[in-house]
């Protein structure tokens, strides 16, 4: 598929195939045109499922990544929790932001959207660095996010104890069971399609470890991935790692794997104190 | 009932006439000469046996209720009348294709000299009937397959299955209908369905999957029905440009409701009646046992018709409805009322009145609508029962209002809110009656009292449907 893991040496590979998940060119152009017209309003809102009873690990990570990114850009946004946020979203994925008349979902399109409004974190990067950043973001999406989804829905213990009850909490019986099993079936089908259906939990933890190792190596001792200034990659990595560290699952194996990389731990702590005043939403 | 000839007093086998005649064609029996008339009317007869021939899977005990009245006949004319009524009852069960009656004198052991035997020759419907047709709607086509199994277990149960395969969505439904033996107006009906609909006036798509059980029974002159229904509704936006207020309604919900409806219908016909009245009152209580939505919904429909001079008919109809959320929940877009269109307040686009956001109509929690029509036959068309008789011209005056209520205020505030900003329209048009089920209308409308946000359709408007204001 995409990126060679765990070591990515952009300088040496010429035929690097990047499958960056972004919108089509036409859609991008449309969004840019519409977005550039107005400044960022005060009433911008970010929608996610209910925090205490409903939201799951993967959605929480994605939502936190977007929140971190917007805080890094200095754009105010209010977090609104709705039970049907997943269905309100135009692409079916969490989170999405409602800015003026526009509704944009997922980190990639949101980054494009804010860029069209004149706010960007990756302007200072040259082309090579930007390609590297996109590659690492792909790595996080393809490994970390997929691992989170696997652990939530394909691991029977977690699915039964945590995912299904939480996912179906806003609904009455028997709708709650129907929706939870439907979602589980969908995710398992997707996992089988990308080749993760046969992996065992240990192999998935191994993938997470390898991904963290790559990130840790890239980060080194710098404060952020691209030296002094945070970029969307920092927001994405923070979102996922912080959520993994602070979410209670059936076992602590996942959190332990992340904790073994101390520079990633201090990276998360640093971003939390700088942008979230010590408490993240 | 046709004519019966009797030439002598001897017990000759008498072939009763085929009683397949319409009520309109019933004439009074001709006056026979005195002697023969005495035979027909005054001679006492006793119905000794009633046979039903040609039964396959129908259970005999089920039919006793329909034919038992025949035994009570006292004279020959009475026998013929009761046999005719029994035949109508048997046909109404919906399990026979044909019913023929033969009245004969009694034969064999224990036959009395004035005894009669009545035989019903019936032909049952086939076990399975199917139907297939295609429909074409707004930019999509559907293939509809229907399968009907009448008289499933021998007691007039009916099983219907319907599948609709469309270019965009598929729907299906299955329903089982069981009348009570002896009283076919009482029945139980079980349904399960999946239906998808697209509502462009609200930019939303709704898919309903549900099951219901309905009990229908008559009380005095009204027909009552009690229904318990459970529906899983899935709402999603039809396009990316849907208003955010509609986007907020996307998602899943479960409605579990008990509803009751009462219909009192004394109209002479369902479409374009000449006289009579219709009163329909419907209540629905949702959320009392399970489900995500809880509300109380009331719906009232009244129609009065009166014939005037020159074959014209004056018709007044009134509709009203109220949706009351229970507890501190808000109402869902799937449950609210909509108003406007060629079948309700004419002159306005379909369901395009009342609360809206960004061009998408959200529906209202309370509404009222009224219509006053004057129907008259086409001028210069004097032939009855011709094709032109299916047409009518009509002058109409429609009015209505749809709004949301803040239930913290009192009822007088609500009435005031419904009374201000009334939309109304007037015009004239042509109505075509299709059988006894539907009608088509072509109207020229002038909408008045238009509020900002309403979408109007002034000028020529075409409408087709079953239920019109």
Observed structural traits:
heterodimer; A: 281 residues; mainly alpha; Glutaredoxin; Glutathione S-transferase Yfyf (Class Pi), Chain A, domain 2; 2 domains; four-stranded mixed β-sheet; 11 helices; 56% helix; B: 469 residues; Ubiquitin-like (UB roll); Porin; 5 helices; disordered N terminus; acetylation (chain A); transport (chain A); mitochondrion (chain A)
**Unreliable segments of 5+ consecutive residues of chain B:** 1-28, 31-35
Report the order of strands and helices of chain B: HEHHEEEEEEEEEHEEEEEEEEHEEE
Number of strands of chain A: 4
CATH architecture of the largest domain in chain A: Up-down Bundle
CATH class bucket of the largest domain in chain B: Mainly Beta
* Helix-and-strand structural type of chain B: mainly beta
Overall outline of chain B: globular
Order of helices and strands of chain A: HEHEHEEHHHHHHHH
Kindly state the mean pLDDT of chain A as a whole number?
84
Structural Rg of chain B: 28 Å
Identify the strand order in the major beta sheet of chain B.
4-5-6-7-8-9-10-11-12-13-14-17-18-19-20-21
Beta-strand content of chain A: 5-15%
Number of H/I helices of chain A: 11
Largest sheet of chain B: 16 strands, antiparallel
Name the CATH architecture of the largest domain in chain B.
Beta Barrel
Average pLDDT taken over every residue of chain B = 85
Domain POTRA (chain B): 45-125
Membrane topology (chain B): Multi-pass membrane protein
InterPro entries (chain B): Bac_surfAg_D15, D15-like, POTRA
Family (chain B): Belongs to the SAM50/omp85 family.
């Amino acid at each position: 598929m995409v990126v060679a893991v765990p070591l990515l040496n952009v300088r040496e590979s010429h035929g690097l195939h990047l499958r960056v998940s972004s919108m089509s060119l036409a859609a991008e152009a449309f969004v840019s045109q519409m977005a550039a017209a107005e400044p960022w309003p005060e009433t911008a809102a970010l929608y996610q499922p209910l925090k205490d009873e409903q939201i799951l690990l993967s959605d929480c990570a994605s939502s936190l990544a977007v929140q971190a990114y917007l805080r890094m850009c200095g754009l105010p946004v209010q977090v609104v929790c709705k039970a049907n946020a997943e269905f309100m979203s135009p692409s079916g994925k969490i989170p999405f932001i409602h800015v003026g008349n526009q509704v944009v979902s997922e980190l990639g399109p949101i980054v494009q959207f804010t860029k069209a409004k004149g706010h960007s974190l990756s302007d200072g990067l040259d082309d090579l660095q930007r390609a590297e950043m996109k590659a690492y973001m792909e790595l996080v999406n393809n490994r970390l996010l997929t691992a989170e989804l696997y652990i939530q829905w394909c691991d029977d213990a977690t699915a039964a104890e945590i995912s299904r009850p939480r996912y179906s909490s806003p609904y009455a019986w028997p709708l709650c069971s129907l929706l939870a099993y439907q979602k589980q079936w969908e995710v398992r089908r997707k996992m089988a399609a990308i080749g993760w259906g046969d992996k065992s939990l240990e192999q998935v933890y191994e993938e997470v470890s390898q991904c963290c190792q790559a990130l840790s190596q890239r980060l080194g001792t710098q404060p952020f991935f691209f030296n002094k200034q945070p970029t969307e990659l920092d927001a994405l990595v923070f979102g996922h790692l912080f959520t993994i560290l602070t979410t209670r699952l059936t076992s602590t194996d996942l959190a332990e794997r992340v904790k073994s990389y101390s520079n990633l731990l201090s990276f998360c702590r640093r971003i939390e104190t700088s942008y979230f005043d010590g408490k993240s939403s | 009932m046709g004519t019966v000839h009797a030439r002598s007093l001897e017990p000759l086998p008498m072939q009763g006439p085929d009683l397949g005649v319409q009520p309109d064609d019933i004439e009074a029996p001709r006056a026979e000469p005195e002697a023969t008339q005495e035979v027909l009317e005054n001679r006492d007869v006793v119905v000794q046996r009633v046979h039903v021939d040609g039964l396959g899977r129908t259970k005999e005990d089920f039919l006793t209720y329909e034919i038992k009245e025949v035994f009570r006949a006292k004279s020959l004319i009475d026998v013929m009348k009761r046999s005719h009524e029994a035949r109508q009852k048997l046909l109404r069960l919906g399990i026979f294709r044909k019913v023929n009656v033969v009245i004969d004198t009694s034969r064999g052991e224990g036959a009395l000299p004035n005894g009669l035997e009545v035989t019903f020759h019936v032909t049952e419907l086939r076990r399975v009937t199917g139907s297939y047709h295609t429909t074409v709607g707004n930019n999509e086509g559907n293939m509809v397959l229907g399968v009907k199994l009448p008289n499933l277990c021998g007691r007039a149960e009916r099983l219907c299955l319907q599948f609709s395969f469309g270019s965009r969505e598929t729907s299906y439904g299955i329903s089982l209908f069981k009348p009570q033996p002896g009283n076919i107006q009482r029945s139980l009906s079980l349904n399960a369905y999946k239906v998808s609909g697209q509502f462009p006036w609200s930019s939303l798509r709704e898919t309903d999957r549900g099951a219901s059980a309905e009990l229908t029974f008559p009380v005095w002159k009204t027909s009552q029905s009690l229904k318990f229904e459970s529906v899983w509704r899935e709402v999603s936006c039809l396009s990316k440009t849907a208003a955010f207020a509609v986007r907020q309604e996307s998602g899943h919900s479960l409605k579990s409701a008990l509803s009751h409806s009462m219909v009192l219908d004394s109209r002479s016909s369902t479409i374009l009646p000449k006289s009579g009245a219709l009163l329909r009152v419907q209540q629905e209580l949702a959320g009392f046992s399970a489900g995500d939505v809880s509300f109380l919904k009331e719906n009232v429909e009244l129609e009065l018709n009166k014939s005037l001079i020159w074959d014209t008919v004056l018709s007044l109809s009134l509709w009203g409805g109220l949706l009351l959320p229970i507890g501190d929940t808000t109402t869902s877009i799937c449950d609210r009322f909509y108003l406007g269109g060629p079948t309700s307040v004419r002159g306005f686009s379909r369901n395009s009145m009342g609360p809206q956001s960004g061009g998408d109509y959200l529906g209202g929690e309370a509404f009222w609508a009224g219509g006053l029509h004057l129907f008259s036959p086409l001028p210069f068309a004097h032939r009855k029962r011709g094709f032109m008789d299916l047409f009518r011209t009509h002058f109409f005056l429609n009015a209505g209002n749809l709004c949301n209520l803040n239930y913290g205020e009192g009822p007088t505030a609500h009435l005031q809110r419904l009374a201000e900003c009334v939309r109304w329209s007037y015009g004239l048009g042509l109505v075509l009656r299709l059988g006894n089920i539907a009608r088509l209308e072509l109207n020229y409308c002038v909408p008045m009292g238009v509020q900002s946000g309403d979408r109007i359709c002034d000028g020529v408007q075409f409408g087709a449907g079953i239920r019109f204001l």
